[in-house]
Amino acid sequence: MPEPHILPSVNLMRAFGLEPDPWQLHILEARPNRLLLNCSRQAGKSTNVAMLALGEAVLFPKSLVLMLSRSLRQSTELFRGVSDFFFQKRSPMVRRKCGHELQLSNESRIISLPCSADTIRGFGKVNVLIIDEAARVPDDLYRTVRPMLAVSGGRLLCLSTPYGKRGFFYEAWARGGPEWMRVEVPASQIPRIKPEFLEEERRNLGEAWFRQEYCCSFESLEGLVYPDFAKFVTGPFLPAAFRGDGRKVGGIDFGFRNPFAAVWGVVDRDDVLWLTGEHYERYRPLSYHADKLPRPVRWYADPSGAGEISELKRAGFAISAGNNALRQGIAAVTARLQSGRLKVLPGACPNLLAEAQLYRYSDDATDKRAETPVDDNNHALAALRYLVTKLDAGRNVRTGPAETAEEKARKREERERQKQREWLSVRNEELRRRIF
Length: 436
Hints:
Blueprint: H1 9-15, H2 22-30, E1 34-39, H3 45-59, E2 64-69, H4 72-88, E3 94-98, E4 101-104, E5 109-114, H5 117-120, E6 128-132, H6 139-145, E7 155-160, H7 167-175, E8 181-185, H8 195-205, H9 207-214, E9 247-253, E10 260-267, E11 273-281, H10 286-292, E12 298-301, H11 306-314, E13 318-321, H12 326-339, E14 342-344, H13 350-356, H14 379-391, H15 405-423
Parallel strand pairs: 1-7, 1-8, 2-5, 2-6, 6-7, 9-12, 11-14, 12-13
Antiparallel strand pairs: 3-4, 4-5, 9-10, 10-11
Helix pairs in contact: 1-3, 3-4, 8-9, 12-14
């Protein structure tokens, strides 16, 4: 096998009249086995993808280079970029070009496809797997394509601009192991992008979106249903008002492929719901989940799971169907958050907090369901919604802060004084005595 130092990727790029930026040169020469490229918009990411693909296909005969993009349009554009470089030089290595596949005379193939399970499942023994705009590729498809590298021991190269604190690209960047080579390329390192343009973009896009598009920052998604949810995580101890004698309540969202999600906690005497635990797991039977749920708790569950509710009742759980009205449930949870009557103990509900950073409304202005959140990242949140909607059934929406114990006591005393004043009033007939 040829040595890495004679890789043609850099020479190919220069032959096409392009001088690689330092970060491009670093990646082309390093040939990382696992790469995360966190890159600004318009940094030259697609050009780097093309050079990576061409260099591997030229140097290693019978190679299969598979490039995946989020959509058909993007995969078409990516493939055009790769094939156009070869056709510019009328390379004799091109044996055949068809659809989204380029075949070379050394029997190597470069294939560019959209991320669809129907189009990619048949591939195996992939030598280089390139995922473009990886932050926007669904996690399920990422898990589908990784086994394609099992036999070949191939390379996995993920390139993207950030798209919120979500998905496999963010998880690998933030918490992945040492096998990943991480390269960050903000717009400030791209000489072709002028500072004046960046300043204009900052003014027009807003700070958060600008940082994400041009500064490689993983920002929280815009349009979140509960944008300030994380603020309601409290300190490590319950308040003095709670002594363990509150009502124990919980919510459940049933699932198998989607996670079975349950959250639970205690309603204290000030009507604050303290969430103290969660259970969140896929591909397990109901009997497994039942062993993980605490007792005694009053449970409110997904009303579509009538069979599961019956099974849990027979197992001795105090459980009934929750309310599945989506907007009403969101409003009820929001009311508790805004009034300070919903708290989460640190470390108690990590999946609930993770979902709250992702659960959002559609960012498509033409979406007819703009008032309905995207049906994803909402399983623990659904469990919370079933719980809160039932807990607050029949109440008016509260917008002010919750009453403290002192305020409640003061109101009780005022009511007692009012009753005494009414008793002593001259209008109280019971105080009068007939003389004759």
